[in-house]
Each structure stands twice: as structure tokens, then as C-alpha cells.
Design brief:
three-stranded antiparallel beta sheet; binds iron/sulfur cluster
Length: 126
């Protein structure tokens, strides 16, 4: 099966095979927000086998009217709290938020392809 993914309306393609050797560039680097919905909070808490109150306290920060996963500073990078540098993977992969699942096909990147290319080595011209 091809690892090349295309989505209608986007002027680029994505080679998912690039993730294997990328080192998780989309989960680290500049500080950003990884927004989670109430349902996603429940899903992640369940996966971690903790209750929502503990999840809230340990892993979330309020940003306006929404909640984002917190980051941890590693050198000069802001890593997502769930990124595991040793394995290069996500500790909550099965329950990762929609924002992570839909990367790199975000509305914002439709008009900012060059910026996306700098972040993600899997981006191909379509
Ligand atoms: S930056 Fe791109 S290639 Fe790297 S892990 Fe994220 S999606 Fe995969
Ligand atoms: S939740 Fe997982 S996939 Fe999403 S940014 Fe954090 S480590 Fe990456």
C-alpha cells in the first residue's frame, strides 16, 4: 500500500513513511498548543488509567476557553508532554487528539505550504 496521502483541497501530498525517521518534528520544537476536547480528555485519561481531575492537574493548561496539553522544555525545544524522545513516539498514540491525527492536513497550511515543509519532511509537492 502506498504511504502517500492526498486530501482534496490541499495543494500538497504527505508521505507517511517519512515519520519513521523524522524524530517527531511535529511534536517538538517551537512552543504551541495541542487542543483537546472533553471527549479526548476522557479518552486519554482512560488510556492512562487516571481520572479526569488528575489528568487536568498533570497535563492540561487553560488557553482562553480551551484546554491544551502542556509542554516540557528539552534543551531549546518545547516538546509535547507525551512525546517520548527515546522511541520517537507518542505515549498516547491511540488516544491522541484530533489536532494530531489530522496533521499535516490543517486548514491553516493550505496557504502556508512553505512553512509546513520546514516543519514536516513528509510534505511533497502535488
Ligand atoms: S513532522 Fe511530518 S514526518 Fe515528522 S513525524 Fe510529524 S507528520 Fe511525520
Ligand atoms: S499528543 Fe502525541 S502526537 Fe500529539 S503532539 Fe503530543 S506526542 Fe505528538
Amino acid at each position: 500500500m502506498s504511504s502517500i496521502i492526498r486530501k482534496e483541497g490541499y495543494g500538497y501530498a504527505f508521505n507517511a513513511a517519512a515519520c519513521a525517521s523524522c524524530g517527531g518534528k511535529c511534536c517538538i520544537g517551537e512552543s504551541g498548543n495541542i487542543f483537546v476536547t472533553t471527549q479526548e480528555m476522557q479518552n486519554i485519561s482512560k488510556l492512562l488509567d487516571i481520572d479526569i481531575a488528575e489528568f487536568y492537574k498533570k497535563y492540561l493548561i487553560k488557553k482562553g476557553y480551551r484546554f491544551s496539553l502542556i509542554e516540557k522544555i528539552v534543551g531549546d525545544s518545547y516538546d509535547c508532554i507525551f512525546f517520548e524522545r527515546e522511541s520517537g513516539g507518542c505515549a498516547i498514540y491511540e488516544a491522541r487528539p484530533k489536532q494530531c491525527r489530522t496533521f499535516p492536513f490543517w486548514e491553516y497550511f493550505k496557504n502556508n505550504i512553505e512553512e509546513l515543509k520546514l516543519e514536516c519532511p513528509g510534505i511533497l509537492d502535488d
